Amino acid sequence: MSKGLTMTMIFLAESANYGESLGNVATLKKITRGKGEQYTYISRQAIRYNIVEQLGEPLASLSAEGSGAKQVIQFDQNATIDKYPEVDLFGYMKTAKGDNALTRSAKVRLSNAVSLETYKGDTDFLTNMGLATRLRENGNEKAMNSIAQSEIHRSFYRYTVTVDLDEIGIDHNVDIQLPNEEKSRRVQKLLDTIQYLYRDIRGRRENLQPLFIVGGVYERKNPLFENVVDVKQNKVDVEKIEGVLTDSLRQDTFVGVVKDAFENTAEIQDVLQGQKIPQVFENLKQKVADYYEGD
User: Where does the chain have alpha helices with state H?
Assistant: First the structure.
């Protein structure tokens, strides 16, 4: 039976993804909604990078195709899914001169992690005062401080991961199919990585571990909770989540929350049968194992 895993999570982080700088101002990645409210986000590419970096598996070999300014860095022709879980989980495109491109779509789909609180324009004023002072003390009296500004935003963020369990470990381009045991191991290791995910940025290590999670293994391969998980006044909107939980979905859905991370922890536990976060990941891993054992 066809199955997909989906989970939507909330974490708390600060200034975790910057775009291009404007002069001496480092700007956060942002989107604008409604009446002009701005929300910061961490791109799916950035999250993918951190997952691959922390997955603990061999990194896929790369090549540069083309010449000059048109050179494209891509996965090597020999970077196959049996050798590298990275291309199994997140797909590839391989081109060669004179040949059609070989593509394999991602079997693990990520959304951007979008802030659940609006950006209000806060900035951090930065100087290299310490280094400039040391240089002046060493005789360079003309050493000047460099001045810069950096946008800052601390917020809850929401993102969704959706995994096509049927397509993990299968590549029709080169006729590769991995054993179910290896498919299960890869997905379970992905879940372990996401459970303890972090992001290094500008001298900080931001913890991306979920404070709230809702998800499960379903016959529908749809990011079911992507548009209904929200936080208002430090409370998870339980009613919104309840609105999409049919009787059949409810029995396959797991909800986890960190105690007192939100003001309505008791409501989450009572209405959504919220558990501890580690227990939810163990349940999801068991569902994945059961699926591949019964396939």
Answer: 44-54, 85-90, 129-137, 180-195, 238-242, 247-250, 265-271, 277-294
pLDDT tens track for 157-186: 999 999 999 999 999 999 999 999 999 999
Dihedral angle, C-alpha 294, 108, 193, 176, nearest 10 °: 60
**So what's the pLDDT on residue 126?**
78
- CA distances to 9, 40, 83, 112, 218 from 277, rounded to whole Å, are 10, 25, 31, 21, 19
Segment 132-154, tens digit of pLDDT: 677 767 777 666 677 789 999 99
| Coil/strand/helix, residue 115 | strand
CA-based radius of gyration for the chain: 22
Please state, in angstroms and rounded to a whole number, the distance separating the CA atoms of residues 106 and 89: 6
Among the listed residues 222, 211, 290, 196, the one whose alpha carbon sits nearest the alpha carbon of residue 255: 211
Name which of 231, 229, 282, 294 is nearest 254 in CA terms. Answer: 282
Contacts for 179 with CB less than 8 Å, ≥ 6 apart: 169
Backbone φ and ψ of 277, nearest 5°: -55, -50
Q: Which residue has the tokens 């997140």?
A: 90
Pairwise CA distance, residues 273 & 175, whole Å = 43
User: Kind and range of the H or E element at 7?
Assistant: strand 4-14
